Amino acid sequence: MRKLIYIILPCVMLFFASCEDEFIDLDPPASITEQVYYNEAEHFLTGSNSFYNNLLGWGDQGIYADHGSDLVGYSEDSEMQIYSRGDTQAPETDGYYASAYQAIRDMNLLLQRAEAYEGEDNIGEYVAATKFHRAWQYFFLVQRFGGVTLVTRPLDVGDEELNAPRNSRYEVIAQVLADLDDAIAGLPTEQNISSGDKGKISKWAAMAFKAEVLLHEATWMKYVDTATDGDGIASGAGSAGFDASNITAYLQEAVTLSKTVMDQGGFELWNYNDVLDNLSSNFLFNLEDGGSNPGGLDKATNKEYIFYSKYDFTFKQANTLVSHVFEGRVKPSRKMIDMFLCVDGLPIDQSPQFEGYTETQDEFQNRDFRMRAYFTYHKTLGQIPQTGDEVLNGTNSFGYRNSKFMSWNWGTDLAYRATTTESYDMPLIRLAEVYLMYAEALYELNGTLTDDQMNESINLVKARAGLPPLTNSFLAANNLDLETEIRRERTIELYAEGATRFNDLKRWGIAEEELGETIYGAVIEGTVYEGNPDLYDASAYGFGEETTTTGVGNRRCIVVQPSSIRNFSIKNYLFPIPTSQIGLNSSLLQNPGY
Question: CA-to-CA distance for 378 and 496, rounded, in angstroms?
Answer without folding.
Answer: 16
